[in-house]
Amino acid sequence: ATSYVGFDSITQQIEHKLLKRGFQFNVIVVGQTGLGKSTLINTIFASHLIDSKGRREASEPVRQTTEIQTVSHVITENGVRLRLNIVDTPGYGDQVNNENCWDPIIKYIKDQHSAYLRKELTAMRDRYIQDTRIHCCLYFINPTGHSLRPIDVIVMKKLSEVVNVVPVIAKADSLTLEERESFKQKIRGELFHHSIRLYPFDTDEYDEEEVQLNESIRNMIPFAVVGSEREVNVGGKAVRARKNRWGVVNVEDETHCEFVSLRNFLTRTHLQDLIETTAQIHYEAFRSKQLLALKE
Ligand code: GDP
Ligand code: MG
Questions:
Q1: Cβ count within 10 A of residue 107
Q2: Is the minimum distance from the CB of 263 to ligand 1 under 6 angstroms?
Q3: Is the dihedral of CA 145, 234, 62, 166 positive or negative?
Q4: Which N-terminal stretch is annotated as signal sequence (predicted)?
Q5: Is the Cα dihedral 221, 227, 232, 237 positive or negative?
Q6: ipTM beyond cut 0.90
Q7: pLDDT tens track for 70-114
Q8: What span, in angstroms and rounded, lies between the C-alpha atoms of 217 and 166?
Q9: Whose CA is nearest to atom 10 of ligand 1?
Q10: Is residue 29 within 8 Å of residue 88, measured between CB atoms?
Q11: Whether the Cβ atoms of residue 221 and residue 141 lie closer than 8 Å to each other
């Protein structure tokens, strides 16, 4: 006779364990100086993901990012704890000679893989390894409206070999909606032409729904984003926005820019897949290469 043994509770057991442990999500921002990387980080943290404790005052002097540094917040929603780490990088590609200027960033990403592997290989390894591997790289593209710079092509290609790369059009408020759309198409064409394989990848593990979701992301990329550290009064409500010669650009208004789409992509729809893809594709490639080298 068949009898109920209760193993279907395994999903609750897993959930309980995961909830206790919490999640860690690591994002890096990369691109030329002045494209609004640091601003976007602050916008993400200040937008209603978090009530903005660490908000900067508008009078603070403009800071320059001179080294790789991590901004970190713990967010809790309905008992789920997420540690969101965003790694800010100094701009590169500002020099006359830009050769190998991306090396420190690639090295940083590989160092995290290396640290993880070392912990994995330790005999008395911790039950749970702190994960500093980068799950997503936001690559900032200059809003020229024309085309990618040669250095963008080189760097995105290099990055895409070690991390999930998601391109964004920086300071999208400097382009009209029409300009943005044609710029996006141009960029998608160039990415294809240069065989740059960006996230999301196709695997046969995805179900119909996931396949469609990924298709919609591919059609939207690069996300045209606007960041702001200030609040502007719009109809009696304080919103994150920028004032420009055409009026007020509300960062969180989906008819103004794709900041909300990017945030949803990162936190609502692809968080788990970005983490999983990092482990299964990027980290695994690094790991097997290292282990092979050890054997020789
Ligand atoms: P980073 O060097 O890439 O970190 O750039 P910052 O975040 O320091 O920003 C450089 C300048 O661009 C600052 O004056 C920002 O106020 C401005 N900025 C940032 N984001 C935007 C944006 O979305 N639109 C516009 N027009 N300006 C922005
Ligand atoms: Mg900066």
A1: 13
A2: no
A3: negative
A4: none
A5: positive
A6: yes
A7: 888 888 888 888 899 999 888 776 666 677 888 999 999 999 999
A8: 10
A9: 34
A10: yes
A11: no
Q: pLDDT per residue over 186-221, tens digit each?
A: 999 999 999 998 999 988 888 999 999 999 999 999
Three state DSSP letters for 61-114: CCCCCCCCEEEEEEEEECCEEEEEEEEECCCCCCCCCCCCCCHHHHHHHHHHHH
| Whether the CB of 37 sits within 6 Å of ligand 1 | yes
User: What is the SS3 assignment for 253?
Assistant: coil
Q: For the chain, percent helix, then strand, then coil, each to nearest 5?
A: 40, 20, 40
What is the sign of the dihedral through the CA atoms of 189, 213, 25 and 63? Answer: positive
Cα separation, 278 vs 148, in Å, equals 26
Nearest to 171 by CA among 218, 220, 223, 136: 223
- Could you give the 3-state DSSP secondary structure of residue 77? strand
pLDDT in tens, 17-70: 888 888 899 999 999 989 999 899 888 877 544 333 333 333 444 566 678 888
Pairing of strands 231-234, 237-244: antiparallel
Q: Are 269 and 213 in contact (CB under 8 A)?
A: yes
Tell me if 268 sits within 8 A of 238, measured CB to CB: no
From the CA of 138, which ligand is nearest?
Answer: 1
Tokens at 31, concatenated: 């691109």
Distance (Å, whole) CA 51 – CA 75: 10
The response to whether residue 93 sits with its C-beta less than 6 Å from ligand 1 reads no
Q: Give, for ligand 1, the residue of 30, 38, 39 to mutate: max count of ligand atoms closer than 8 Å to Cβ.
A: 39
Residues present in the chain in total: 296
- In sequence order, the β-bridge partners of residue 76 are 81
Question: What pTM was computed for the model?
Answer: 0.90
Contact 241, 228 (CB under 8 A): yes
